Task: inverse folding
């Protein structure tokens, strides 16, 4: 038990920083999702007026959010995992 406590004391600040980083990345991703729906939905829906608004909102929201996710994953792999 003392080994676990010692490890937490030693690595705790790094774990907390990593957890905070995950929260920030998720919050920004959610912001990208919501902002893209709020900003792009009226323009895109006018191009396809007969389509279900929920489907258009999903496509408009997940497109930019997917690009953001791939960008973050690529940057994490390049700078954190590879360490270059």
Result:
């Amino acid at each position: 038990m003392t080994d676990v406590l010692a490890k937490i004391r030693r690595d705790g600040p790094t774990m907390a920083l990593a957890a905070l980083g995950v929260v920030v990345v998720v919050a920004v991703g959610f912001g990208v999702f919501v902002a893209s729906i709020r900003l792009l939905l009226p323009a895109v829906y006018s191009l396809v007026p007969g389509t279900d608004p929920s489907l258009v909102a999903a496509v408009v929201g997940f497109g930019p959010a997917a690009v953001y996710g791939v960008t973050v994953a690529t940057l994490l792999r390049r700078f954190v995992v590879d360490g270059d």
The chain has a mean pLDDT of 84.
